[in-house]
Amino acid sequence: MGGEKAGAPAADGRISAFSAFHQLGSGVFINTEVTLQTALKEIHRPDHVTWIDARECDILGFAEAGHAKARLRESDATFTAIRSYKVAARYLDEPQGSVRDTIWFAQWDYEWNGQSVLCYKFRWIADHWAHQYYVVVTDQSNVVDGRCKYTEQLIKACGTWCDAIHDEIYVYEDGEWEKNKALFHAVSKASWDDVILSPSMKTEIVQDVESFFDSRSTYAEYNIPWKRGIILHGPPGCGKTISIKALMNSVRHKNVANLYVKSFRAGCHTDERSIREIFMKARAVSPALLVFEDLDSLVQDDVRSFFLNEVDGLEDNDGIFIIGSTNHIERLDTSITQRPSRFDRKFHFEPPSKQERLLYCQFWQQKLQTIPAIEITDEVCQAVADSTEGLTFAYLKEVFLQSLTMHLHAHAHSKGQGTSETEGLGSTQPKIPSSLESNSFYKMLQQNIKTVTEDLGSQEEVPINKIPRGTSDSPKMKVVRARRIYRTPG
Annotated region Disordered: where (predicted)? Predict the structure, then answer.
C-alpha cells in the first residue's frame, strides 16, 4: 500500500509523518524511537506530541470497546498494513476464520471526552521484537508544564480499562500472564449444582473460600493476616477440577480476581522469577483466588524454598486465597502439607460412595430425560450405582458417554437395517435383572461398566514407591495408582 512519494516535502518545506517513517525504515538507524519522536515534533510544531506504548495502553482497543471513537483515515494513501487470515479458535463457532490487519502505519481522528485529536500508530521490527506505539497530537491549550493534561487523562482511563478483566481469567504460562476468554467461558458454566460430593464436604469447601473474602474486617479486628490456603487431593476423576471451576465461578461475583497457574517454565527466565511474577500479580489484583493445579508437578525441590517464601508472605499477601490440587499428596514435602498458615486445610476427594454414584446417575437421568429412546429410570440409576463400586466420577462419565455413543450408532444402524439396538454387544453380557431385560440403554451401560472394571482389574499392581518418577503421569500409572491406593476391595 502507499501513494505518497516518500521523502517529498510539503509546500512549507516540512515532510509528512509517513515520509519520516518511510525514510527511517529505509536506511541505517540507531534508535528508532528517538529519531522518529524528533521528526514528529518537527512535523507537528507547535502542537504537542505524546508517544504511548501500545502494549500497556491500547487506545484503539479502548475505542473498539465503545469508550471512545476512532475514525480511520482509510482514504489516506499512506495507510500501511498487512492483511492476513486468522484461524478460528473453534471451527464449530467460526468455520471460516476471520481476516485481520497488522497495521504498520495508520492515522485516526480520535474522539474522547468531548475532544477530537489526531492519532497515529507505528509498528516496526527491531532486535527480533515488534515495537508498537500510538502517537497523539494535541494543541498547546492542553499543555501544562510540558505535559498534555488531555493525553494523561486518556492514558489513565485506557490503562485502567486495559488492566481490568473483561470476561477473562488471568492464566500464567510461558513466563507471562495472559487474559484467557476460553477458560472464563468454561468456568462460567461450572455450578455447584453439578458437583457431586458429600454434602458436608461441599459445604465446608464453599464456606471456607467464600467466607474468607467476606471477612476482611474480622481478620483485621483480630490482627490476623488476611490470607489462606487449602489443598484438594485424591485420585484423578473424583471432582477436584470441577470443584475448582465452581469456586472460581462463585467468587468472581464477589469481584474477586481469578488467577490460574499452568506452569512456572519460561524460555527466557528462571522458575524463581516466574514464581515471583505470579505472586506480584496476585498482590496487585487482590482480593484474588490463586490456583495451582497439579501442585506436586509445579513445586519441584529446587524451587520449593523460594515458593514457600512467597506463600509465607514476606511481603503483604492480604486478600490472597491459594488453592493447590494434587493427585499425589504423598509427593508433596511436609513443609507444604503439614505447616499451618501455608495451606491451612486439606480436603480428600475419594472415589464416590454408593449414594454419590446414585446422585451422579440421577444427574444423567435428568440430562437425558428429553430423549424418549433412552430410558434411565430410577431402577436403572440404582442398579448402576450398585455395580460401580470403586469407580471414580471420571470412569462413570466415560461409562455414560461410551454408552451414548453406542446408542447413537446402534440407533442409526437399526433404522437402516431393521436390527435391534443391542445387537453386536457381544455374547458375554453382564447379568441383567428381568425387570430391565427390555431396556437397551441399561444393557449398554452394564457392558461398558464391565469393560472399565476389567481394564482396571487387568492392570499390574505396582507399589507406589517403585513407580519411576518419569512415568508417574502416564495414563497407565494413573490407573495403577487409582486401583492400588483408592479402590475399595470387593
Answer: 412-432, 456-477
